[in-house]
Design a protein that fits this description.
Helix content is 19%, strand content 37%. By secondary structure, the protein is α+β, with helices and mostly antiparallel strands. Bound molecules: zinc ion (ZN).
Length: 170
Amino acid sequence: MNNFSAYEIPFLGLKVGIHDYEFELKETFFEAFEHSQIEQANLTANVKLDKQSSMMVVDFHLSGTVGAICDRCGVAFDLPVEYDDRLIVKFGDVTGTTDDEILVLGTEVHLLELHQYLYEYAHLAVPSKTAHPDEEDCDQEALNLLENLRPGDDDDDDIDPRWDALKGLK
Ligand SMILES: [Zn+2]
């Protein structure tokens, strides 16, 4: 069983107003999810919860680094990421999510569980293509190797097979 109690906010006792929280998202957090695309991570989630009488507005700011593979040189590196999102929570009779993604918490709920949101936001923070921000940071040796291995770059591949036959006549 995964224990995400560190990512829960007991909101019932909170006064109306703004409350700040900070959560660390590292390897152990993502390991707890079976399908996580993120393995290495050093992220901080700053969460600002605005409690009102009938609802809560929860603003997330994620920042830090995520372990990624560079699309250009194929080497693992720490990709700096940043992500903001907002969750609207309303107090209602039945717990669920509305079509416009508002979380409704029934009267029996007294903990706001954030782990699923933090997990999703962290994944949204990572672009589908990841590469060293600066090509100069790429592993030059790996780049050269890849350059030599890339099939399309070698013009010999496209040469008319008859040329090969002629070469054989030399
Ligand atoms: Zn690179």
